[in-house]
Every structure is written in C-alpha cells, then in structure tokens.
Amino acid sequence: QVAIALKSKFNASAKNAARWLKGAGFSATVTLGPLKAEFSLTGKDAAKFLKDAGYPAVQVANALKRTYKASAANTAKWLKDAGYSVNQTVGALKQAGFTAIQIAGALKTKLNVGAAQVASLLKGAGFSAPQVVGALKSKFNASAANAAKWLEGAGFTATVALGPLKAEFSLSGKDATKILKDAGYSANQTAAAIKSKFNASGKNAAKWLKQAGFSSGRVAAALKSTFSASGKNAAKWLKQAGYSANQIAGALKSKFSASGKNTAKWLKQAGFSVNKVAKALKSKFSATAANTLRWLHNAGFTLNDIKNGVKNAYNMSLGAVINLLRSLKL
Fold this sequence. Notes:
Helix content: over 70%
Distance between the termini: 107 Å
Radius of gyration: 33 Å
C-alpha cells in the first residue's frame, strides 16, 4: 500500500521508493515484494536499489532469495554488481543459507574467483575446514595437495586441515606429511597434525618428516616440541628415519644444547659406529682428538674401536693414538 501510494502521489521511482520504505522501517524482504510488482524490477536492479537505500548485504541476499527464488550464483552476481564487496557477498550468502559448495560454485562461475581466494573467503565467512575441502573438491576438482595448499593459504592450521584432507582423500600418514610440508606447514605444525590425526609415534613421525624432506634440525625440534623427546630418543628416532650421524650431531647440538659428551653417548646408543661418531664430533663440535677420545670412552666404545675411530677421523697414526690414550690415562 505504501509503495503504491508513493508511486501514485509522488511519482516515486523504484530507487526513491526503496529509500523511503527503508527510512520508514520496512525490511528489505518486505520492501522488495511490492517494488518488484510495481516497477517490474529485475534481480540485478533490485539489488542495486536496495543497496542504495542502505540495506546491508545479508538482508538484500535474503530478499533476493525469497522474492526471486534466486540461486547462490545469481545472488552473488547481483550483490557484486550492486557494489557490495566480495567479502560482504560471501558472508551474506552464508547467512542466507547457501552452502559452501553452492557459494564456491557461484564465486567461480559468476565472479571468476580462483580456488585459493575461494578457500580464504569461505573461511572468512565462518565455514569449517571440512566444508571448505568439500567445496574445493566439488567445484575445483581439487587434489589433496592443492586443497592442502589452499587451506594453508586461507589460514587453517595443519591439524585442522588434516582431518578433512585425510577423510576426503584417504591419505596415509606418509602421504599426509608430504602434502602438509609441500603446502607450506612447518615441521612442528606437521608433527602435531600427524600425531593428532594418525596417532603417530615419535619414531613414525621422524620417518615421515624425513621422507617429506624436512632437515634433521627441524625434525629434532618437532620431536622435542610435539613428543617431548629426550636427546637420547631423538637421536634414536632420527637414525631410524635415515639421518646421518653428522646430521644428528648437529641437530642435537642446536636443538637440545647437547654437549659433545652426551652426543657421543646418544649416537652410540642409537646404533652408530665409532667411525661415524668420531667424525661427527670432529665436524660439529670442532673436537680435538683428545676430547673425542674422552667422549668415545665415556660413551662405552671399546678401546680398540676408539683407536680405530680416532685414527680414521683425525688421520693419525695408530702409535700417535696409543700415546694420546696413555697421556689421558685411558
């Protein structure tokens, strides 16, 4: 009745009628019905007039959906054409009841938005990681690797991202670790995720992280942080994962503040030969032959093993090594 009166007595345009009805306190949905009927408005024009009248995007989205039975795609296009931002549009579509899959399709087909931005927009609108993964898989035919990369870019944590990635793509722990690493997650984040979603042990985590391409230092830090690993256990798991004695010695020194003495002991307990331990001590601790002798002896190597290890690591004659042993009273 008000719309008819405004048109009849004030020769109101659709734009002015929308503005006056908004000022009078009518909702966007209530306003749009008579505007459409009286002015034969298209959905595109309706969205523009409602925006110009001052209605927020969510009210306009609801009005378009109800009055025009508008799809997510058409609603997105009309809102964007009316001048609402992409963020406002996505938030309005969600509040209007459209699903993540419907919104992803609308963004792709009507607004030419790429998958990475779609993931960010959906997260910003409040959709969960499983909903975002489902949308990316449905509308962008996303692989597990691409989905992980887009989830990381959107700001999902590795642990939150891994749940739906594992479910949607039937990932193994090894594959999941590689995918998370390639997506840009750190060793610490990845370790926490595979512990949470695969119940990974420290031993398996070290192996998968190594296979994914993380350095020994980053893996050592992750084992310490996520699994509360001791230096002894870290050395054992790192060796089982395939890292060299030299790499592990450096990791123990930098991440566990290990002394040369403790490093020698942990490397031996991990199963490294005296030759490899001696070379690692020389390389990573700049150890003198005398210190290496002491640390190898303390670690429990036999005297014969120690003699050969130091001889090879320091290019000494056997007689010189024996003399050094005597001087140290070993």
